[in-house]
Amino acid sequence: MSASLLRAPFRRVAIPPVVSRTPRAFRNPAFRKYSTEVPKPEGRSNAALIAGLGLAAVGAGVGLWIYTSDSTKAKEAGTAVKSGVQSAKAAAHYTPTKEDYQKVYNKIAEILDEAADADYDDGSYGPVLLRLAWHSSGTYDKDTNTGGSNYATMRFEPEALHGANAGLQIARELMEKVKKEFPWISYGDLWTLGGVCAVQEMGGPKIPWRPGRIDGFQVQCTPDGRLPDATQGAQHLRNIFYRMGFNDREIVALSGAHALGRCHTDRSGFDGPWTFSPVTVSNEYYRLLFDEKWVWRKWNGPKQLQDAKTKTLMMLPTDYVLVQDKSFRKHAEQYARDQDVWFKDFADCVSRLFELGVPSSQWVTSEPWIMKNSDEK
């Protein structure tokens, strides 16, 4: 039986609806106009208006492109053009509507299922798209107000080559297909919307989301080491997540994303899925932590645990600390007992994670939106 046939019932296992400042050197007063509410269409084609704005911005970018000689400068020249388009939209008091972004969401939802035809992992690109959104947002440092989802700096080296981002070129290439069809959307908005789509389409809670991120430059890349190291313990998790502004309960809630996907030896060095249904968002991750007996796997790879019964599942050292640490454990036990509670907390934490590093003046709407699932269209 193909993975695509198995995936349909998985996605509907549990779907109860649950519902800073920019660094001074890069602050642009034009972007403040993003803070207006979304205007109603006035009978004009959104695509045509965006295209017109794009042509107005191309002039500035072409001159820069002529003088570029290597791929990095060329990419930054392209970014300058795209940022010019975003500035032009702001200056014209124009913002794509929620319906425009819903079309982007729908396109991403179509791509999720292409994994079955490509024989990719467990039949869905959802987990790797969620990982892209997570890793592009989780670099935020609240003390220096750097990193986060605003500039989508993983497009550039060295951030694209950071060890924690190994394999994410797959997700970025998938998102390029969407970008070609909707060139007006910023990469930060595209990647985080991809994460929202992945969670919702795989049976998870609705994730409040809003657009307004802008494309940045290589100079805004964050240093390596800001994402979790799976070989570490509880204090490391606190150092990483406290830096972003999350507390112990929120650390545990976000860890539940490991209900999805699997590790690969050619990326992280680890191997295997966390759950028996890695393309379904559920609280199975927490239940397995407590219900299964976990033993250290004897192999040539990095230190990881496996379930004693089937030896087909794995947990990372940073997963197992949710059982060992007293503060973490009480929250993990609650999430194992009550999926609705976890869905609510997870949706709130993921929504906030995806907004890290974005100045409030850039948001196109004061309140986040709820995007429709593909079966609600």
TrEMBL record:
<feature type="domain" description="Plant heme peroxidase family profile">
    <location>
        <begin position="122"/>
        <end position="377"/>
    </location>
</feature>
<comment type="similarity">
    <text>Belongs to the peroxidase family. Cytochrome c peroxidase subfamily.</text>
</comment>
<dbReference type="GO" id="GO:0004130">
    <property type="term" value="F:cytochrome-c peroxidase activity"/>
</dbReference>
<keyword id="KW-0809">Transit peptide</keyword>
<keyword id="KW-0408">Iron</keyword>
<dbReference type="GO" id="GO:0020037">
    <property type="term" value="F:heme binding"/>
</dbReference>
<dbReference type="InterPro" id="IPR019794">
    <property type="entry name" value="Peroxidases_AS"/>
</dbReference>
<dbReference type="GO" id="GO:0005758">
    <property type="term" value="C:mitochondrial intermembrane space"/>
</dbReference>
<keyword id="KW-0575">Peroxidase</keyword>
<dbReference type="GO" id="GO:0000302">
    <property type="term" value="P:response to reactive oxygen species"/>
</dbReference>
<keyword id="KW-0479">Metal-binding</keyword>
<keyword id="KW-0560">Oxidoreductase</keyword>
<dbReference type="GO" id="GO:0034599">
    <property type="term" value="P:cellular response to oxidative stress"/>
</dbReference>
<keyword id="KW-0496">Mitochondrion</keyword>
<dbReference type="InterPro" id="IPR010255">
    <property type="entry name" value="Haem_peroxidase_sf"/>
</dbReference>
<dbReference type="InterPro" id="IPR002016">
    <property type="entry name" value="Haem_peroxidase"/>
</dbReference>
<dbReference type="GO" id="GO:0042744">
    <property type="term" value="P:hydrogen peroxide catabolic process"/>
</dbReference>
<dbReference type="GO" id="GO:0005759">
    <property type="term" value="C:mitochondrial matrix"/>
</dbReference>
<protein>
    <recommendedName>
        <fullName>Peroxidase</fullName>
        <ecNumber>1.11.1.-</ecNumber>
    </recommendedName>
</protein>
<keyword id="KW-0349">Heme</keyword>
<dbReference type="InterPro" id="IPR002207">
    <property type="entry name" value="Peroxidase_I"/>
</dbReference>
<comment type="function">
    <text>Destroys radicals which are normally produced within the cells and which are toxic to biological systems.</text>
</comment>
<dbReference type="InterPro" id="IPR019793">
    <property type="entry name" value="Peroxidases_heam-ligand_BS"/>
</dbReference>
<dbReference type="InterPro" id="IPR044831">
    <property type="entry name" value="Ccp1-like"/>
</dbReference>
<dbReference type="GO" id="GO:0046872">
    <property type="term" value="F:metal ion binding"/>
</dbReference>
<dbReference type="Pfam" id="PF00141">
    <property type="entry name" value="peroxidase"/>
</dbReference>
